[in-house]
Amino acid sequence: MFYLSESLYLAQPFVWIIVEVIILLYGLILFCCRRAISLEKFLAFSLAFSGLPNAFTLIFISVAADYRYIVWTVLSGFLSVLLLVADHYQNRKTRGLRLEKQTTTMSETETEEQ
Q1: Which residues contact 83 (CB under 8 A, 6 or more apart)?
Q2: pLDDT-derived band of residue 82, with 50, 70 and 90 as boundaries?
Q3: Whole-model pTM?
Q4: Distance, CA of 27 to CA of 21 (rounded, Å)
Q5: Greatest Cα-to-Cα distance within the chain, rounded to the nearest angstrom
Q6: Nearest residue to 16 via CA among 83, 88, 70, 84
Q7: CA-CA distance, 114 to 72, in Å (whole number)?
Q8: What is the CB-side half-sphere exposure of residue 65 using CA atoms within 13 A?
Q9: CA-to-CA distance for 46 and 42, rounded, in angstroms?
Q10: Distance between CA atoms of residues 89 and 94, nearest Å
């Protein structure tokens, strides 16, 4: 099982470092373009930001970048991706409810006009 998990890309710590850098770039774009973001997105960006300094300090200490030393970076990257996906689906659901409410109020006003 150990050798199988080593061959997967998701089990490599450097993949999670790249994921965290991408999440931070996405966060910078959102901070520049919008005035307010959701709490889930802010928590995801904070988690990604906390994982990167951990990984960069361990580059000088550890010879091998494996899970013994870089566990927080992998965990924070995974949790930040999970939070962004959850926020996306929550926003999608609330957008659908808003559209439903708008169409029902529009149809009610059309029937009142007739």
Answers
A1: 40, 41, 43, 44, 47
A2: very high
A3: 0.68
A4: 10
A5: 77
A6: 70
A7: 63
A8: 17
A9: 6
A10: 9
Q: For residue range 10-30, list pLDDT tens digits in order.
A: 667 788 888 899 999 988 888
Cβ proximity of 24 and 84 under 8 Å: no
- Measured in residues, the chain has a length of 114
Q: For residues 91 and 95, what is the distance between their CA atoms, to the nearest angstrom?
A: 6
Pair of tokens at residue 100: 């439903």
Report residue 65: phi and psi, to 5°.
-90, 85
Give the span between the Cα atoms of 72 and 78, in whole angstroms. Answer: 10
Residues 80 and 44 sit within 8 Å (Cβ to Cβ): yes
pLDDT tier for residue 39 given thresholds of 50, 70 and 90: confident
Pairwise CA distance, residues 57 & 114, whole Å: 70
Please give the structure tokens belonging to residue 32. Answer: 């520049």
Report residue 36 as tokens. 């307010």
